Amino acid sequence: MEHVWGTAAIWMALALVASLFSIRLGISVALVEIAVGVFGGNVLHLEVSEWINALAGIGAVVLTFLAGAEIDPESLRRHLKPSLAIGIAGFVFPFLGAAAFARFVAGWAPDSAWIAGIALSTTSVAVVYAVMVETGLNQTELGKLILAACFINDLGTVLALGLIFAGFDRWLVVFAAVTALVLWPLPRLTRWVIQTWGGRVSEPEVKFLLLVLFALGWLATRAGSEAVLPSYLIGLVVAGVFQESRALMLRLRTIAFGALTPFYFIKAGLFVSIPAIISRAALIGAFLLVKMVAKLVGVWPLTRAFAMERRSGTYTTLLMSTGLTFGTISALFGLTNGLIDQSQYTVLVTAVIGSAVVPTLIAQTWFLPETAPAGAREPGQASVSTLPAMESSSLSEGED
């Protein structure tokens, strides 16, 4: 028992250090937690116990749920046509491109190549959302469109991870049927739970949502799929409820980021090998380039087709090229299930981290759209107070 508490203290100390560095540097805490995990694995030689695995798994499920719940249903409906087109292209092109590169250029086995395609097909809702808030673009139609497209992109990633490696047997049928039956009445049931028992110290509404997440997560893993698949869908269907009850969202976010996700992200960094990064730096760079080029080929022409001006289209393409949470979840799934080895895992996670940083820096430095509020712009850049004719008609084609 002493060993358990000592291990818990070390991991929470690393999580605290990551939080402080994140605040100081002004970057995503997930990135810093992964970096701290790399330090813990390569310098401190930390190991992962069964209970840490459990906490990390719960953290991934709750984080995936929160990502789905962040989507504004009204924005998704209003921008349905462009967000569907951009989101699907943002998934398909890097998924196939990275998988083909891994299989036929890097010489990876088929299952390893599929994991590479899935891990590099993602976009990062966390990174994009932070950028949107920082620049004020989350209040514009452009920002809402980008966030909606990110959701569609990541939904493709989660579905691919859940279905490609699922065991197609009676359990998969049971999982699909039960999930459909649960999701349909879930928004009304969640509202009823909040109205009937909400606001109590015992937090029954939080426990209710965790029950749904854990039950469907168990069914997903029993079917040979991944627990994050139903989590993302649950988040989406209750997103409207969370728009009405932001306090509930904040409580769940506190639980997740305070006590659960640090174990997930530190664990993700723990398996990254510094010697492998050094020896395979060229391959890491190649995977990052493949992802960015594939996103450019798939997304940028669509931004022009939907009448975005050139600067906004490039900015959208770059933010769609980011990746973090689902990329690391996919890579860790591959490592845990023996689909990739530690060296391949290191290559993928390092490329994913690079995709969270490089496209964001390029976008913010050179392509911040004219739609950004004046206070968010760099000195010397023109300030524009109106949304360019991005052709509100194009952006609103999903409206009834």
Note the main attributes of this structure.
single chain, mainly alpha, Na+/H+ antiporter like fold, 20 helices, 0% strand, disordered C terminus, Cation/H_exchanger_TM, Cation:proton antiporter, sodium
Task: Describe the structure in your own words.
The chain is mostly helical and 400 residues long. It has one domain (2-395): Na+/H+ antiporter like fold (Up-down Bundle), CATH 1.20.1530. Helix content is 76%, strand content 0%. It contains 20 helices and no strands. It has helices spanning 2-25, 29-42, 50-69, 73-78, 80-105, 110-119, 125-135, 141-164, 170-183, 186-197, 204-222, 228-237, 239-244, 246-270, 274-279, 281-305, 310-320, 325-336, 342-366, 392-395. Helix 5 packs across helix 8, helix 6 (110-119) packs antiparallel against helix 8 (141-164) and helix 11 (204-222) packs across helix 12 (228-237). The protein is globular. The chain starts with a helix and ends in a 5-residue tail after the last helix. InterPro entries: Cation/H_exchanger_TM, Na+/solute_symporter_sf. Keywords: Antiport, Ion transport, Membrane, Sodium, Sodium transport, Transmembrane, Transmembrane helix, Transport. Residues 13-362 form the Cation/H+ exchanger transmembrane domain. Its main location: membrane.
